[in-house]
Amino acid sequence: MIEAQGEWGIMPLLRGMLGIATVIGIAYAMSYDRKRIDWKLVGGGLFIQIVFALAVLYVPFVSGLLEVCGKIFVKLMDFTEAGLSFLLGPYASKAGGFSFLIHSLPIVIFFSALVSMFYHWGIIQKVVGGIAWLLRKFMNISGAEGLVAAGNIFMGMSESPVLIKNYLPAMNRSEIFLVMVAGMGTIAGTVMGTYIGMLGGSDPAAKVLFATHLLSASVMAAPGSIVIAKILCPQTEPATDRIASIENQGRPNSNLLDAISAGTTTGVKLMINIAAMLLVFIALVAFANYILNNLIGHYTGLNNWIADITNGKAQGLTFQFILGLIVSPLMWLIGVPGQDIMLVGSLLGQKTILNEFVAYFQLQQWIDAGLFLSDKSIIMSTYILCGFANISSIGILLGGLSVLAPNKREIISRIGIPTMIGGALVSVLSATIVGMILGQ
């Protein structure tokens, strides 16, 4: 069982501070206009993130509330099994082992229908509106920016911008940049259940723990997205104080049954898309590993050398090993325990080049194999992977936003790669803060 937290220590604290400075430094070095960065906004966003992380880990009421939310998520996931049992009968049982296709992916359909139902009732709008008010109050951003940043806690990067579709055509570059970074730096509630089921497996306590941290990561990503976006692309024009009203945009579904039906249809498409991407990307990784490991590594002797220098943790020259090697220095700087930096670095690389589904699947495999020497590394990995920042997401955002704001197509296409990097930094920043607070 993974422990929820460790003990305070001066070294983890110093490394955490170094990690925060490193992430902010990377964003500063890539900024479009360093002189116009609003450091008060940056400080406010970091303060909100740190306070929330402390509250989650050390304030019983907040951690208890988030744990209750996590248990609700897990309980909702259990209801999917009723539908699976009807459709698959004895094949739906986990007695014969855990199947990602059978036991995780169908959750996407059920959660998509639930989100559509809650949106129809106006529940999500009220929660998002409250969080948006908080972000506007403390971080001096426009209402539309606060709304889309908060919306991404629960919605996907394609759905959340619809909340401000009437404001997108009038947004400046900095505001559009924030919309895209917020989409890249968060995950959708519809897929969160899949990650919980994947990482928790059949252990109820592990499911609740991962649900708690995934929820925490989603909430922390809202102010984190604002911090990173406003460093990379500072606001050079006054922030407009226009509060987008979700209620006035009309409901797309005529009644509850229509909402459930639409959500189910969307979930089916999403499930098929996820399954297809996983199949292709994992097959491509296997193909790359065959070339690297079975051919190059085997005939050059690199496999044995790599296995020796990593004490058997790496099996040779593989795609995962190369990614881990490249990202290892950053992982050490943000406070990942030294013995696991290559594993966590590899996960970040896989998430960015492939997608977070592949990376979470790899995390689950490595947890089951007992490769991690520190529970802290597993929790930090959960935060690092909690975002849509990958190459394929650039195309998804370009396609969606270009339809909503065709007059901004040139700006959107120009800032695609920087926003992906910004989204990755958001997740890394959240992991750094949590790792610093976790301690040993």
UniProtKB/TrEMBL annotation:
Organism whose genome encodes this protein: Candidatus Parabacteroides intestinigallinarum
Concentrative nucleoside transporter C-terminal domain sequence ranges: 213-435
GO molecular function: nucleoside transmembrane transporter activity; symporter activity
Designated name of the protein: Na+ dependent nucleoside transporter
Domain Concentrative nucleoside transporter N-terminal per the UniProt entry, residue ranges: 18-90
Topological relation to the membrane, as annotated: Multi-pass membrane protein
Pfam families reported for this sequence: Gate, Nucleos_tra2_C, Nucleos_tra2_N
Membrane-crossing segments per the record: 12-29, 41-66, 100-121, 176-198, 270-292, 312-334, 382-405, 417-438
InterPro entries for this protein: C_nuclsd_transpt, CNT_C_dom, CNT_N_dom, Gate_dom
Keyword vocabulary terms for this entry: Cell membrane, Membrane, Transmembrane, Transmembrane helix
Family: Belongs to the concentrative nucleoside transporter (CNT) (TC 2.A.41) family.
Keyword Transcription regulation annotated: no
Domain Nucleoside transporter/FeoB GTPase Gate residues, every copy: 104-200
